[in-house]
Amino acid sequence: KENVDSRHNRGGFNVAQPVRFSRKCPTGWHHYEGTASCYRVYLNGENYWDAVQTCQRVNGSLATFTADQELRFILAQEWDLEEQTFVRMDQRRFWVGYQYVITSRNHSLEGHWEVAYKGSSEVFLPPDPIFASAMSEKENVLCAQLQCFHFPTLRHHGLHSWYAENCYEESSFLCKRSQTCVDIKDNIVDEGYYFTPKGNDPCLSCTCHNGEPEMCVAALCERPQGCQQYHKDPKECCKFTCLDP
After folding, report:
1. Could you tell me the sign of the dihedral formed by the alpha carbons of 79, 81, 82, 88, in that order?
2. CATH domain 30-178 topology
3. Under the cellular component aspect of Gene Ontology, which terms does the record hold (predicted)?
4. 182-231: per-residue pLDDT in tens?
5. Backbone angles phi, psi at 72, to 5 degrees
6. Residue 4: C-alpha distances to residues 13, 85, 118 (Å)
7. What's the Cα-to-Cα distance from 188 to each of 144, 175, 193, rounded to whole Å?
8. 223, 239 contact by CB (below 8 A)
9. Terminal Cα-to-Cα distance of the chain (whole angstroms)
10. Whole-model pTM above 0.85?
11. Which of 42, 168, 190, 200 has its CA 20 to 30 A from that of 50?
12. Which residue, among 151, 134, 152, has the nearest Cα to 142 in the 3D structure?
């Protein structure tokens, strides 16, 4: 690196700098490397079935969790729910991708958790839930709400609860989708397409493969001729604005 820098400083040639890919999720989503997934809380109150459809429209599903580490990641996030009106300000509940199937109504409700949709990867199932509201005798399936807390100390200690709630109650919800390629202008890129990754080099062209930029090729730009002071556009390759009078 020292030799390259010294030659670059003497004006011998231009050097392409390493690029850090800073985004693997669209704006508003949180990335977790452990599962190569993106997560987003939707504040608008929807019943469980509407929440399922909203997640599907963004190529995701209501979140399920593969390991305790993933759940701890979710609990540690600050989800910006100041406008949330469905629960107390110090605690937050989200629909997630589990359902509680009631098998007995003897002295207490008995049943078991199931993943709410087919085709999901291996997941862990929640512990026994808290039953949130009064239910009619006809209800055989309840839907899962994950409760986390606003206060940072409680959040970072992973304090949380699982609720089995009437599926037609309105609540915020947590969507999960695979990480994706995001270009420098924050557009989502489909598998196999060329794109410029979100980062610090607008002259990079890569192929999107499994949500990662691969087979990247860089272009080096000549400085603009006849211009002493100039500004390089951070999002357009080899585009300059001359600042001379």
Report:
1. negative
2. Mannose-Binding Protein A; Chain A (3.10.100)
3. membrane
4. 888 888 888 888 888 877 788 888 988 877 788 889 888 888 888 889 98
5. -60, -35
6. 9, 57, 54
7. 30, 17, 11
8. no
9. 37
10. no
11. 190
12. 134
